[in-house]
Amino acid sequence: MVVVMAADATDEDADNVAGLVRAAGGEAFVSRGVSRTIIGLSGDIDHFATLNLPAQPGVCDVVRISVPYKLVSREHHRERSVIRVAGVPIGPDTLTVIAGPCAVETPEQTLRSALMAKAAGASLLRGGAYKPRSSPYAFQGLGEKGLRILADVRDETGLPIVTEVVDPADVDLVAAYADMLQVGTRNMQNFPLLQAVGGAGKPVMLKRGMSATVEEWLMAAEYIAQRGNLDIVLCERGIRTFEKATRNTLDISAVPVAQRLSHLPVIVDPSHSGGRRDLVLPLSRAAIAVGADGIIVDVHPHPETALCDGPQALIESDLRELASVALHLSPLVGRTLTPAPAPVPSMSPALA
Fold first, then answer.
1. Which of 136, 176, 248, 348 is the most exposed place for a label (fewest CB within 10 A)?
2. Domain at 2-63: CATH code
3. What angle do CA 296, 310, 243 make, to 5 degrees?
4. Helix 254-261, helix 277-290: angle, nearest 10
5. pTM score above 0.85
6. Residues 6 or more apart whose Cβ sits within 8 Å of residue 169
7. Which of 159, 102, 110 is nearest to 131 (CA)?
8. Are 335 and 308 in contact (CB under 8 A)?
9. Would you say the C-alpha torsion 140, 142, 147, 152 has a positive or negative sign?
């Protein structure tokens, strides 16, 4: 069950509803959005009927929802959501390109990658400062030094930052620099991390686990939403199958399936799904054609020397073609390409 508060409802109205539910032995998860507050209820639903919730001050509607992922479900939020990352929209009317280096290595490499990405139409900069790897001997990222580099590059280019956080203890630090927090595929069911990013006050990109079903993916998003954050973007990045011809198998059908079940935006990562530079453009075309709300791609000025995922990183010639593909395919699926924001000086921790 979900309680939808009126647009003019106060925090006290929402707290009153949550208090009534908890006093009756249930659980109430308050999610305060930009224009509406939604309260997800769990417990004895029939018993909640005695509370007369529709008559409580500030309540707009009470909706019974059959699926377990209540807050991210289309059952209570029929219209698809638009998530804004430092003003950049991700949603059903736009195609948002997110691009940058898989791993931050140096200031020069990161800035060059960002400029390449922006020239190709990217409106958000991806870059990894913390890199969880399968091998403990592989490059693990620069940590806070990498975050400072990203902040400097944001100030130079105007591109808001999307970066991964891997440990609940690091959420506050990463959130101090980042405009959007990424939860990677290996952490999709790291529930303490999901709860921590849910309370960080920043939009979240949630990548699908390599062996996760769509329902498990949406349930992971629900952990974030329960902590009051509905600014979630789902990312299909390929799943593990028996096929070894590609790094992962891009489940292109997951895009319309997730969009039908959830109001959250869904984007595609053609870099990590294909694992090869020559596959990124074809998979990007497929993602745009199927109705993805955006794509996230790896960029590197010198992939042959990259410390992480060089074989799948795009170079300038690839990016020129990607820019043409995004520009020409977007109108065919009823979308406009999200423009890149202009540089705005900030007081990030790197500059304070």
1. 136
2. 3.30.70.1140
3. 75
4. 40
5. yes
6. none
7. 102
8. no
9. negative
Please, are residues 90 and 265 in contact by the beta-carbon 8 Å criterion? yes
The Cα 119–Cα 125 span in angstroms is 12
What own/partner pairs with CB < 8 Å and gap ≥ 24 does 324-330 have? 325/281, 325/284, 325/285, 325/288, 326/95, 326/97, 326/120, 326/121, 326/284, 326/288, 326/295, 327/121, 329/95, 329/285, 329/288, 329/289, 330/95, 330/288
Residue-wise pLDDT tens digits, 240-262: 999 999 999 999 999 999 999 99
Q: Where are the domains of the chain?
A: 2-63, 83-337
Q: How far apart are CA 266 and CA 30, in angstroms?
A: 23
For 11-166, where are the E strands, in sequence order?
A: 27-32, 37-42, 59-63, 83-85, 88-90, 94-100, 124-126, 161-164
Task: Give me 318's structure tokens.
Answer: 């690839």
CATH number (2.102.10.10, 3.60.21.10, 3.20.20.70, 3.40.50.80) of 83-337 reads 3.20.20.70
